[in-house]
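Still learning. Any example?
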Amino acid sequence: MFENIIGQEEIVRTLRSELPQGRFPRSSLFFGPPYAGKLSTALEAARALTCARGSAEWSCGCPSCGMQKELLHPHTVLLGPRYADIEIAACADALMRSRKPATLFLFLRAVRKLTRRFDPSILDTDDARLKGVQEKVARIEEALAECAPGKALPSERELGDILERIISAAAPVAEQVRGDSITIGQVRRLAGWAHLTASGSRKVAVIENADRMQDSARNALLKLLEEPPEAVHLILLSSRRAAITPTILSRLRPYPFAQRSAAEEREVMEKIFRSETPGFESLRAFFLAWREINPEKLSQLARRFIDMVQAAEPAAGDIGAQMAEILPERKAQRDRSSRETGSAFLEELMARFRDLLRGGRVNVDTLEQWNQAVREAHARLETYNMNPSSILEALFYRMRDASRQQGDASRQQGDASRQQGDASRQQGDGARADNERRVSAGERARQEAGR
């Protein structure tokens, strides 16, 4: 099991020990940086939990594993926001360049990571935004049937047409799960699904981006975590563990995912996504390119933003120009591209913070305040869908205030040090004066004695 996971040896070793022995918890949290393989590992854990033979090798031929490989198992559900259309496009490109069974599974799974979030058993039917979505999902599944595993792939031209139809049909569906938070309706439907008895199989719910929940949804999930049904496993995923409430965290067994090494990320790009472009230094850069975001420019903008935060008195016009450059022509919009760029920019800021700390440009207290400010900005952008430009501008002033507090504290410390130095000098002067007086008194006493 877990043969398809690149890196994360410690996590894989732990799961390979726990799952066969029945020690995998009913409530768990897979957390760590983006692109660390959390969802792939969770889906492999679901396959292991439902495998009829118990071995869960990738080559296992049991019906359960067959359904899990195609993400069609009725006892595994997915929910939570995700940038699904980006992965679908990247996997379609890989399939066109490498017409092999492994790449076909990669594409099918990318599509169903989207469509399974609209499973009737967990679909929030009260959400008006989801009206008609199941008909769109059905059209996607019809197109997928034309390139199902076990069938000969169509010609290159026909396959290209099929993939284009799937990508086009998936785009409006993906928009529904791109930036929305998890609703109370979804969690209630999930609880109902969890309490239904499943004959002869365990049930697994994978909740991606679990930190992006409405308050009412968190409370509903907490009730489910307090009394999870037998044979039901809830696997929460998050790149922002600190954004999950302590009451929920206390009921989850944590599984920390490490940042993949550069070599492991190159292996993912080459073996999984069949990338032949040598210019991507990381998986993040690879996916930013698919989102039409230049990672080098993003890094430059983040460094300039921080320089302005730490500047003595940046001009108001400079701040406005910076906001316009980060979110060009979208300063007052809340459209998809603006949210994507804003989210990527916040991630880049966090990466730059670590460099600043190593370089001694910011102290630990200020860095923690900056990190907290960015986490809250991310929540307002992704969970509450607020105006990206307003969020970044408010973040700028909050970071600047924290930086100024650091400067004021440093100056006060310097003033205190100078005052202490002045006091020490005055004390030294006083001591010297006392010594001179004692010397003078001694000299007078000797003169008196001589008379």
Summary: The two ends are 107 Å apart (CA to CA). The first strand starts at residue 27 and ends at 31. Residues 330-334 have pLDDT under 50 and may be disordered.
